[in-house]
């Protein structure tokens, strides 16, 4: 029983976002203030972009990274966990797969980076909306349940989810925000869009399309390395047929909420399908000798460049 809301330890976690907002009306002003911030368009320099079913943790004095962020959330939820004293921060883009495992790992890593430092763990939730199938509410419940089980007090500071992240257009419910970033130096959290999704996006998305469930920890703050893989996936049956289908067919059949996907959704799905077609066995053709792909930020440009050595 460690979830703290409005400075009060909760006996039980909120079962859904509506109950949270009814019992804690302070979130109305907090959410409205956050929604009033104009979304920033963030370029790739010094950015650590976290894709769906990924997480990353780092420190405020990271020399390579200024901003961690993620976007393209519809029914997904982005969680940000920050230690108020040390500045250690973790971000994950969750869709319901391995939620509790990811949260356990994130809490442990942020705690480890904050040993001996006074401060509180502060939780921020952004994304998800009042979709007709309640995907977002199911995920919100799983996130609240997982955090409430942790053995350390966690202050819920922002919950821009559910009805507060919903707008109706032409009788269709849409999410208001699709992405968020955090400046790891200052702790500022802001709505954001990220045109650049980081290296090897098609490969990383291919893992999701083929059923990879684990939320991968993709960043080593001590070395400043982005780590991709190694992982394998089963060949996708009918990938050739999928690639022959019109955009509308792909949208309707490969999205949980096709009406509200961002405009680049289908092109990114096609790129991932093509990658799977070209690399049906990534353990053989992509991750040779079962070694990960490593990237480091270039000191001059702040952009990711691949490194070819095995770090120790």
**Architecture, CATH level 2?**
2-Layer Sandwich
Order of helices and strands: EEHHEEEEEEHEHEEEEEHEEEHHHHEE
The number of distinct helices, counting runs of at least 4 residues, comes to 9
Q: What radius of gyration results from the CA coordinates?
A: 19 Å
- Unreliable runs, pLDDT <50, ≥5 residues? none
**Alpha-carbon distance between the two ends:** 39 Å
> Domains counted in the coordinates: how many?
1
Fraction of helical residues: 25-40%
Share in β-strands: 25-35%
The major β-sheet equals:
8 strands, mixed
Shape label: globular
Strand order of the largest sheet: 2-1-10-9-7-8-5-15
Average pLDDT metric: 95
Structural class: alpha/beta
Report the top-level CATH class.
Alpha Beta
Tell me which oligomeric state these chains represent.
single chain
**Total strand count, please?**
19
Here the CATH topology equals: 60s Ribosomal Protein L30, Chain: A
Describe this entry's structure for a reader.
The chain is of the alpha/beta class. It has one domain: 60s Ribosomal Protein L30, Chain: A, CATH 3.30.1330. It has nine helices and 19 strands. The strands form four sheets. It has an eight-stranded mixed sheet, with helices on both faces. Strand 18 (293-297) and strand 19 form a beta hairpin. Helix 5 crosses helix 8. The longest helix has 14 residues, at 99-112. The model has no long low-confidence stretch (mean pLDDT 95).
């Amino acid at each position: 029983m460690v979830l703290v809301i409005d400075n009060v330890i909760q006996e039980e976690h909120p079962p859904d976002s509506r109950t949270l907002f009814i019992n804690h009306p302070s979130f109305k002003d907090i959410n409205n203030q956050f929604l009033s911030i104009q979304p920033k368009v963030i370029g790739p320099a010094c950015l650590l972009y976290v894709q769906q079913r990924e997480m990353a943790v780092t420190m405020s004095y990271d020399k390579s990274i200024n901003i961690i962020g993620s976007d393209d959330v519809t029914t997904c939820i982005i969680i940000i966990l920050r230690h108020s004293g040390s500045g250690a921060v973790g971000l994950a883009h969750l869709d319901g797969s391995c939620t509790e495992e990811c949260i356990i790992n994130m809490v442990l890593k942020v705690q480890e980076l904050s040993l001996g430092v006074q401060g509180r763990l502060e939780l921020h939730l952004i994304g998800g909306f009042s979709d007709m199938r309640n995907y977002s509410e199911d995920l919100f419940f799983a996130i609240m349940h997982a955090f409430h089980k942790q053995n350390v007090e966690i202050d819920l500071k922002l919950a821009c989810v559910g009805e507060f992240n919903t707008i109706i257009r032409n009788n269709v419910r849409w999410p208001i925000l699709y992405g968020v970033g955090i400046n790891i130096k200052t702790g500022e959290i802001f709505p954001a869009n990220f045109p650049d999704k980081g290296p090897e996006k098609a490969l990383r998305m291919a893992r999701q399309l083929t059923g990879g469930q684990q939320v991968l920890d993709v960043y080593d703050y001590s070395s400043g390395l982005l780590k991709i893989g190694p992982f394998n996936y089963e060949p996708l049956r009918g990938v050739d047929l999928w690639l022959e289908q019109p955009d509308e067919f792909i949208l309707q059949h490969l999205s949980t909420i096709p009406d509200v996907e961002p405009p680049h959704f289908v092109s990114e799905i096609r790129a991932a399908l093509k990658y799977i077609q070209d690399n049906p066995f990534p353990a053989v053709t992509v991750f040779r000798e079962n070694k990960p792909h490593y990237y480091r930020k270039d000191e001059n440009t702040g952009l990711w460049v691949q490194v070819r050595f095995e770090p120790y």
